[in-house]
Structures are given as structure tokens and as C-alpha cells.
Amino acid sequence: MTFGPSRVPAFVLVVEDEMVLRRRAVGMVEDAGYTPLEALDTDEALAILSSRSDIALVCADIQLPGSIDGIGLAHTVRRRWPAIDLILMSEKLNPPSIDLPPCSEFYGKPLQAWQIKAGIRRMIGHARGA
């Protein structure tokens, strides 16, 4: 696949500790037309974010292992990398009970593929396959 000058591939960092859910989210990212990267916990996610400048969006579970949880990761991303979009997911929590950072979106689990793909495309602003 080739990209024109305004069509650079966008990378989406999926942060999910449960393998089946991570694989499903990775598939949704690919179906939306973007390139997924994977992290199993918040420490690995922060290491990836610190080493790359091409991540457009972080898609993370709220309940994650690591030195901080998914909400802490989201607030760190918003503070250190304000241009990176954020999608947060949870099956146990809902938006009124959590402190979402500005300009982030929340999706309850089980994830609806069409909803996640549309959210990714809307947040990043252009899809390779769109």
C-alpha cells in the first residue's frame, strides 16, 4: 500500500492486559485502516509512547496493571502528549464514576466494532481505507 504526501500511516496504541480483548481491539484498529501497536500494561505503554513520535491515538482499558491505572495513563498522555487522542474502555466503570481527561471518549465493554472503528476514524481524522 502506498501513501500520498497527506496520507501517512497513523499508529494506534492498544493497551489491554487480557489477550482476547487486546486481539479484538487490534482487529478493530486494523479494520478502521490504522496500524496497531500493543502494550500489556501502563508501564509498557509509557515506554512505547516515550520512544515514538508517530502515535495518533491511545486506546486503553481503565483497569490495567502497572504503576498507574488506565485513567492515570490517560491523564499522563493528555499532559505529556496533548496531540494524542484517547479512547478509554471498561466493563465495570462508567463515565459518571471516572475522571476522564478532556477530549477523550469512553466505550463500555463488550465493545461494538462499528462504534470503535467510527470513533477511531473520527478522532484521527482520516482513515487509510476510507
TrEMBL record:
GO terms for biological process: phosphorelay signal transduction system. It comes from the Bacteria. The modification 4-aspartylphosphate is found at D61. Residues 11-124 form the Response regulatory domain. Keywords: Phosphoprotein. Pfam families: Response_reg (PF00072). This is Response regulator receiver domain-containing protein. It comes from Bradyrhizobium daqingense. The lineage of its organism: Bacteria, Pseudomonadati, Pseudomonadota, Alphaproteobacteria, Hyphomicrobiales.
